[in-house]
Amino acid sequence: ISSLLCCHQLLVVVQSLAFSNKKVASPLTADDHDDVVVKSNRVFVAGISQTCSEETIHSTFSVFGTIADILIIGQDDAERKNKRKPYCFVTFDDLSSAQRAVASSSSSVPSSPPSNDDNNNNNSVYTQIQYSKPIDSTRRRSNQSRVEEAGKQSQIEAYTTETNLIVQVQSTHVDRMVDYLHRWNDNEKGEQNNFCKVLGSASAISRNVSLLYLSCGNPIDLGRILGVDPLLARAINKSYIVQPGLLRGNLSTEQGCSDFAKMLFGKVSSQTNNGLNDANDEEEEPVVCRMQVFPPKYQSRLLQLVYDLVQEIDEESRQFTISPKRFTHMLSVVEAYQYKGKGWEERQHDDNSKLYMVGISPASMDLDVVDTNNIITGGSSGDDVSRAYYKLKEAIGMYEAIHGALPQDLHGSLALDCGSAPGGWTKYLIEHFGCKQVYSIDPGELSPSVMKLKETVHMQMKIQYALPKLLEDEAVASDGGGVKLWVSDMCLHNMAEQVELLLLAKEEGVLAPNAFFVLTLKCVVGHSKLAYDAQVKKVVDKFFMDANLDCVETFHLFSNRSGERTVIGYIK
After folding, report:
1. Counting runs of H as helices and runs of E as strands, what totals does the chain give?
2. Any bridge partners for residue 338, and if so which?
3. β-strand 483-488 against 414-418: which pairing, if any?
């Protein structure tokens, strides 16, 4: 014990000697703080509540001096996750007022977050006050960042010089939508009125939404075709017919929205005077507009402002009116660009900081107001059977668009559906190909609407156990028999198993010669299109090495998820 005490005393002495030789930095005093902070008549106020109003801020800080301006930032994003709490900038008329505000915070900063009940008690209004730091001195923006943002704006401006149709597309479906339009163009060669040039796409302000900019010979007809195609219903949210060119404005501010409403009112009135009524059967009848705005959160305010301007005109002198139902034209407003670089929060309050495209076109309730859900399900209940049904329908349709109609010997043949529950693919095989029998193989339950079909043979087991039983079936084992249609939408941990099971069925003699197959390959790793495509290509390349295949195509269907690809062809 005495030895331990001696060691402890020696350690204390050594530490004290070492500490005495060190220079200890003392905390910054108020005077030191003044030396390193750039003083300004503008102060930064952190930690205000989501409901804190401009009046509350004014009453709180006016005791320090005359306030010239108040800018509150972040309350619009308060409900979004992972966003910082709202804050504001208070600009005083003189520096001394700002100094008093900052000095008062050193002794009154609250120890707990602010409450939502705003009052004149400083502790419930803010958590911190400091001088507002000039952006140029505290945050240097790289030239690369500026160039990139300027490039985005220039790109949008270039698109909009030719654009007359904007399609609002799910971001995950942009590539598929572009491929679809290229194929559509190939099918419409020689028809000048039906051409469609894809100018480009850009991410929109809304989450998972992109805008596709098109130049079309007949944007009205193309917009209607895209809107009623059930295969596109999951990809397309809405289409907007616009006129080339951009308008500046800002629908997110009260003044900006008011100014834009006046500009829009004048534009529509001018077009009406210049012959817009020629599209109507009776020229004397006024144009009745239905309005659609993107992003839609600004539609209500803009609609009300334009409606009020219309109502100010004598009824007999009105060139157009606004109505959501009995309308003759569609008035579209689309936000094409807003600055998203550093300092974008402050630009949100600039009344001319955003760029918009607008357009007015003939329209009707029957042709231009579409229930997307009803299109997807074909008017049915919208269950999993209907969604799966259209997935196989899309796959067959895309394959036939390249190779022509499938041979007649597939009609009335035997078919097998792996992973069939709830039965959408089984139902399609029966209805489209008239299969005399479909072996619907899945441990799960089939929908009653599929089970009641006389052609359905439900084998409630895994395909590995079903293959030996199929060989005992007379229809499969007979000469000239065998399964001529093999489709599989199974979800497997290893997508290569889809191919292996098909090859096993071929080896066991379940498949007929030159059988037609449709396989969904589902990637379970990776996060990009390139990664998914590479994985699928590897599996398909090996498939070619292991089997005699013909006319094989790989598609990324609109009905596929991001990591899914559909492989279609013949196995000899």
Report:
1. 20, 20
2. 354
3. parallel
What torsion do the CA atoms of 171, 175, 176, 182 make, to the nearest 10 degrees?
130
Find the distance separating the first CA and the last CA of the chain, reported in whole Å: 89
Residue in 273, 326, 324, 276 with CA at minimum distance from that of residue 303: 324
Give the pLDDT mean for 231-245. 89
In the sheet that holds 236-241, the strands lie side by side as 196-203, 209-216, 165-170, 236-241
- The pTM of the full predicted model, rounded to 2 decimals, is 0.68
Residue 177 three-state SS: helix
| CA gyration radius, the chain | 34
Cα 38 to Cα 2: distance, rounded to the nearest angstrom: 59
211 by Cβ neighbours in 10 Å (0-12 / 13-18 / 19+) ranks as buried
User: DSSP secondary structure string, 345-386?
Assistant: HHHTT-TT-EEEEEEEEE--HHHH---HHHHHHTTS---HHH
CA distances from 156 to 115, 150, 199 (A): 43, 10, 10
Q: Which residues contact 436 (CB under 8 A, 6 or more apart)?
A: 412, 413, 414, 455
Using one digit for the tens of pLDDT, what is the confidence trace for 304-352? 999 999 999 888 788 889 988 889 999 999 999 988 877 677 777 788 8
**Residues 428-438: tens digit of each pLDDT:** 999 999 999 99
Strand-strand pairing, 196-203 and 287-294 = unpaired
User: What is the Cα–Cα distance from 419 to 440, expressed in whole angstroms?
Assistant: 8
Amino acid letter, 151? G
